[in-house]
Design a protein that fits this description.
- This protein is α/β, with parallel strands linked by helices.
- It has 3 domains: about 5-145 and about 265-325, FAD/NAD(P)-binding domain (3-Layer(bba) Sandwich), CATH 3.50.50; about 155-265, FAD/NAD(P)-binding domain (3-Layer(bba) Sandwich), CATH 3.50.50.60; about 350-445, 2-Layer Sandwich (Enolase-like, domain 1), CATH 3.30.390.30.
- Helices cover about 30% and strands about 25% of the residues.
- Strands 1, 2, 3, 4, 5, 6 and 17 form a 7-stranded mixed sheet that branches.
- Helix 1 (about 15-25) runs parallel beside helix 9 and helix 3 packs across helix 6 (about 180-190).
- The longest helix is centred in the N-terminal third of the chain and has 25 residues, at about 80-105.
- The protein is globular and about 70 Å long.
- The N and C termini lie far apart (about 60 Å).
């Protein structure tokens, strides 16, 4: 295809969305290049959901080793070695970085390990000074952690740095109420830190079903995590011994070893040349696109977190695939955002798909809600009082299941299959007619009365 231009497609950013779009476009016959100034793989693989999930696995052993005694196993000399886990996780991140790079190489995609800026019509300038042209430009630069501004804010870290800590802090303050904050609260708590989670509002996990949010708060308090709601930073001071004194509204100051910001993410749009290209942006800097991920400039597209539509890795991958199929595959394709499943790898984890009870009542009017509030067999034997909660929301007029929300062991693993059922529009009667797999936790979803 590339005759007038150096490349048919030039992708800025080699994260999940950019890699998928580039690979598929190349498979359709396009001549493709990618510019990535850090490491191929993006936030999820390098400094996000993949290494974080590995830490979640590591954290689970804290309780599993205790529970093992109730199952007949005596485990002596339990010692947690953070540097060992940290380094093993980083080794696997390096392995994945290599696999993503190999995938692009295998598809003939040219990789520029440097920053690229749009400097003219169909023109990009690399950090080295080299100028290239492309028929289409795809922006897939993702997002980065938001750092609040206040006196002493430079003393805190973000999720980018947390994977490289020299040691596990004795006391840690986590700012935020979203999934990143709650996941790291569970991780640090299980690794032995005294955790305080502060949030500017009085709610955790906005957007998730209220019953699940309340249950996670209850369980987290039982596990020893402290919460400070309606709290805003005033200042952070560094005091003797390298500790930090955190001043906040509505509470007394607290002294901690580490402050972790989990206060949202902002699109990476600086220095891309968007103004030069005339690309329109939203209030938070996000790149505005249509349903085919095209900007207001005909040859420039954007996918993933930089568009601030749904900030989830699988969504970015779907968007990248749809873009490539649309532009280079001759098959106009869009992404359906109406029934996207999600998970919070808290301790215990949450999983959700479809409408919450509140959303369903507001949009459908008459709904039926089915719940199962139970203690898993594992927790019964282990002597733990921690209870799981499964919730199903049904459109009363059609019997269609419009939402499933769960908190408990393996909830994300269980929900993936049931998300297909919700997406397919199955009814409560379809669930009732399905034979249970016994004894499992998942069977609760086909036994709800």
């Amino acid at each position: 295809m590339a005759d007038t231009y150096d490349f048919d497609l030039f992708t800025i950013g080699a994260g999940s969305g950019g890699v998928r779009a580039s690979r598929v476009a190349a498979a359709h016959g396009a001549k493709v290049a990618v510019a990535e100034e850090y490491r191929v793989g993006g936030t999820c693989v390098i400094r996000g959901c993949v290494p974080k999930k590995m830490l979640v696995y590591g954290a689970h052993f804290a309780e599993d080793l205790v529970d093992a005694q109730r199952f007949g196993w005596d485990v002596e000399g339990k010692i947690f070695d953070w540097p060992r886990l940290r380094d093993i996780v980083q080794d696997d991140v390096t392995r994945l970085n290599g696999l993503y790079t190999q995938t692009l190489d295998n598809h003939g995609v040219t990789i520029f390990n440097e920053r690229a800026t749009i400097t003219g019509l169909h023109e990009l300038t690399l950090a080295s000074g080299e100028v290239v042209t492309a028929k289409y430009i795809l922006i897939a630069t993702g997002a980065r952690p938001h750092v609040p501004e206040f006196p002493g804010s430079e003393h805190g870290i973000t999720s980018n740095e947390v994977f490289h800590l020299e040691a596990i802090p004795e006391k840690v303050l986590i700012a935020g109420g979203g999934y990143i904050a709650n996941e790291f609260a569970g991780i640090f708590n299980e690794f032995g830190s005294k955790v305080c989670l502060m949030n500017r509002s009085d709610q955790l996990l906005r957007g998730y079903d209220e019953a699940l949010r309340d249950r996670l708060l209850q369980i987290s308090l039982t596990k020893g995590i402290d919460f400070r709601f309606n709290a805003l930073f005033e200042k952070i001071e560094q005091i003797e011994g390298g500790k930090l004194r955190v001043h906040m509204t509505n509470y007394e100051p607290c002294e901690v070893d580490l402050v972790l910001y989990a206060t949202g993410r902002v699109p990476n749009v600086e220095g891309l040349g968007l103004e030069t290209a005339g690309v329109e942006q939203g209030a938070r800097g996000e790149i505005l696109v249509d349903r085919f991920s095209k900007t207001n400039v005909d040859h420039i597209y954007a996918v993933g977190d930089v568009t601030d539509r749904v900030q989830l890795t699988p969504v970015a991958i779907r968007e990248g695939q749809a873009f490539a199929d649309t532009v280079f595959g001759g098959t106009p394709t869009t992404v359906d955002y109406s029934c996207v499943p999600s998970a919070v790898f808290s301790h215990p984890p949450i999983a959700s798909v479809g409408l919450t009870e509140g959303e369903a009542r507001n949009t459908l009017g008459s709904v039926k809600v089915y719940q199962s509030d139970f203690r898993s067999m594992k927790n019964v034997v282990a002597g733990r009082n921690e209870r799981s909660l499964y919730k199903m929301v049904v459109d009363a007029a059609t019997d269609r299941v419009v939402g499933i929300h769960m908190i408990g062991q393996d909830a994300p693993e269980i929900l993936q299959g049931f998300a297909v059922a919700v997406r397919a529009g199955l009814t409560k009667a379809d669930f009732d007619a399905t034979v249970a797999i016994h004894p499992t936790m998942a069977e609760e979803l086909v036994l709800l009365k």
